[in-house]
Amino acid sequence: MALSEQQRSDFVGAYTRALISAWSNEEFAAKLESNPRAALEESGVELPANARITVDRSDPSDSHSGSLETQVSLYERGLSTGEFEFHIPRTPQVDMTELDDSELAGVAGGMDIYCCPCCSCT
Q1: Cβ(22)–Cβ(32) below 8 Å
Q2: What phi and psi, each to the nearest 5 degrees, are found at residue 18?
Q3: Is residue 32 part of a domain?
Q4: I need a labelling partner for 40 at 20 to 30 A (CA). Which of 15, 52, 63, 84 fits?
């Protein structure tokens, strides 16, 4: 069952709250393990009364399994099957790859910065 734009937005916001809470609040993380329905509903994730819920706390093995689009697809599938799978890794996935000089130049934009668009002060 495909989500409407509003439903998708609501789910993404609730899922994001669950991720942040799991990473920043040990009590919430413990509740996620012991009573996932209550923890997810506390974050705003809407679940049917008969939903079967699995929470995977392992780190994703690849970028696809940890992507937001994958989680949205799993939620949509759960709405059809009644079996919901949530990927909430124990720690945030941060890309620590260092940028080389050309990548840094691209990030910086390679241009001068001025205090306003109409002036050329430095």
Answers
A1: yes
A2: -65, -45
A3: yes
A4: 63
